Amino acid sequence: MGRLLPGGSGFYCFLHMTDHHSLSAAREVSDDRLDRLLSVVGAYGSVMTAFSGGVDSSLVAAAARRALGKAAAPAALGDSASLPRRELAAARELAQTLDLDLIEVAPGEQHDPGYIANAGDRCYHCKSHLYGVLHDAARERGITRIANGTNVDDLGDHRPGLVAAGEAKVVSPLLEAGLSKSDVRDLARLMGLPNADKPAAACLSSRLPFGTPVTRERLEQVEAAEEALQDLGLTGFRVRHHESVARLEVPDDQWATVLDPLRREALVAAVKAVGFAYVALDLEGFRSGSGNVMLTVNAKAAVL
Does 261 fall in a domain? Predict the structure, then answer.
């Protein structure tokens, strides 16, 4: 655990309490990119960060906390069936570590037919609900802006959630400061954020192919399978839900673990135990947003 400490302009201090260091041992760092980010969020006057516990939103929330103070920079966490319970617990712990004023909200996207249908615009419906409840929460607290963790690298992918952000007038301080994902991780390390190297973690509904309805049962099945594989030592992987088939996307550096005969037997048993009949290993390994491939395939088929 640790806590944030005040510093001068462009400086950020993070004291790791478990290290038993004195106040003088806290690290002070300075970086032009950090200066830009602090300037951006400071100009908002007050802001509520859509907080997931990932490195992008954590950097935004921590910078806002630093620039504006705790009361003027709360973080809001949307809790629903698409958020793994481990991620929820980790986000809560991180908010405490960063001394954030954490608000938990229930976006309610699970009741939206557009979200359930899981077409190519699923994320639009999800984010629309989230930003709607965040605006309500912000108004109750007198907060003037809602911020997300979108960075420069996010602009090149299929992200209908960005359309929802635009409609809801959500600000993107990382974009305004011109920060890429690499910049975000650099600054998170400089600031001493404990999740600086955390792999990207998409919501559970992203494990379902477009066109497969999002149901609580499917989400719970994926979550149970991924928890079991995490317990067996895998990290940074995905369990893609194809009805009776679980398609595993595993990072290249963990293939030896997966293919070890004894470990493979345990992995297969763990996935089948949650209701899948077959367990397939994707030969292309882990790819973020691999489900978007079908949007291209379907678009080409429609033209033909």
Answer: yes
Maximum C-alpha span of the chain: 68
What pLDDT is recorded for position 84? 96
In the chain, the number of structural domains is 2
Query: Parallel, antiparallel, or unpaired: how do β-strands 75-78 and 48-50 relate?
Result: parallel
Paired residues of 70 in beta bridges? none
Q: What is the mean pLDDT of the chain?
A: 88
Mean pLDDT of 180-206: 95
115 inside domain: yes
Q: Name, in order, each residue with C-beta under 8 angstroms of 224's C-beta and a sequence gap of 6 or more.
A: 274
The single-letter DSSP state of residue 211 is T
Q: Please give the single-letter amino acid code of residue 141.
A: R
Domain of 267 in residue numbering reads as: 204-303
Contacts of 246 (CB under 8 A, 6+ apart): 225, 239, 240, 271, 276, 278, 279, 280
CA distance 283 to 111: 36
Whether residues 148 and 210 fall in one domain: no
* Number of Cβ atoms within 10 Å of the Cβ of 253: 10
Non-local CB neighbours of 82 within 8 Å, separated by 6+ positions: 109, 110, 126, 203, 204, 205, 214, 219
